[in-house]
Amino acid sequence: MVAGAAVLAVGVLAPWAVGYVTEQQWQSVTSEVNQSQPLFQLETRDYNRGYLGADFTGTVTVQHPETGDEHEFDYQARVSHGVTGSLMDFSPPSQVGTEIDKVFPDEKPRLTLETRLWGTAIIELSIPAVSVIDEETGESFDMSESYARADISGNGSHADILMLWPGAVVRSPDLRVSIEDFRLEQTMEHLADEVWLGEGDMSLARLEVAARNEPALRFDQFALRTETTSGDEGESIDSEAVVTLETVSADDKSFGPHRVAFVFNGLDVESWSELTSALADMQTATLGSERGDSGAVMQQQMESMNRINQAMLGLAADGFSLGFPEMSFATPYGPVNGEIMLQHPSLSASEKDQMMMVMQRLTGNLDVSMPLALVEQYPALGMQVAPLIKQGMVQQDGDRLRLEGKLEDLALDINGNVVPLPPLF
């Protein structure tokens, strides 16, 4: 009987406790989101918590990254409390609902946040199919049902993200744009400060653009794969991104495949985190320049630039390599191939103390080749390449043009032509 009474007491008190923790978690998440980035801010109002549920309203303020213009969107949420967690169901305010009814007459978009007491959360967004026609302009928009989900665990240190968008078509009297089968999968693991590890895959089956009096342009089987891992017991990170495109079609002609790989290896975690943080602070200062004191903004920007310089020196001192180890673009006249890489050696303690700039020990190589027929067929490209050929920087090798270069000792040697380079940071 005692055990049964205890279980009953827990069952009775659990929704109240869950509701209290949920409110604290939401306030904490709101604060962290607002402090971590400048582009959008969350505001919560009138949080009314009851025994089995709660409701609140709020505003999302989105700031344009270039102009600084702000746009506000109101929302309301209904919260259901369970024994181990809560479910938040977000929706637009009632006065906006009539406008949404015109676009979604049957089923409405749904955004939910499911939380658990042990620090996990599931965010789901489902958008039903859309079909909108403007009879006056002849414009239309059709979109299939789409879905997005994020599983967050470890108190925000791990996330699995999935987005599915089967397709959409935009039509006007002079233009038609269609997208088919977009998919995104991303796994993220927090390492330290501003640094995250993980891997991701993004793919798009087809993008087609058809304009009046212009040949249709189509891209098939686009894919982007990224992976970031840590080394040296979490002191450095390596990353690789590979972009592939199976075919490009225009004028009833198709050519491909295309492939580009970008890598960076051995980046010091502390310096990389400081660099990203300083860049974010500089962006924040830039966005607030029109509203704040110009002198204070200038001072903040100068401080951020100094942090960026120090972070770049730190990255270089610990050694790194980055660039494009593989570039391959198919053309109707043959492939364009290339490789561009930069490296900096790891320095000893005494060398780090004497280090004044990044470029001094930076080395690299450049190797790009293209078919001669491509330059001959496109006059605009030929006008750009012709001066390089005259200077000897681009040399002909059979039916191909080639540009080879090496970076060393503050100078870039391109096919025997030495170009002095200014200091960097």
Quick description:
By secondary structure, this protein is of the alpha+beta class. It has helices at 2-36, 94-103, 269-287, 294-317, 349-354, 372-377, 379-391; strands at 40-49, 53-63, 70-81, 85-91, 110-116, 121-127, 130-133, 140-143, 146-153, 158-172, 175-192, 195-211, 217-231, 236-250, 253-255, 258-268, 320-329, 336-344, 363-371, 395-397, 400-408, 411-414, 417-420. The protein has a domain at 11-128.
Structure description:
The protein is an alpha+beta fold. It has a domain at 11-128. The chain is built from 7 helices and 23 strands. It has a 23-stranded antiparallel beta sheet that branches. The longest helix has 35 residues, at 2-36. The chain is globular. 10% of the residues are buried. Mean pLDDT is 85; it is low at 1-11. It comes from Marinobacter vulgaris.
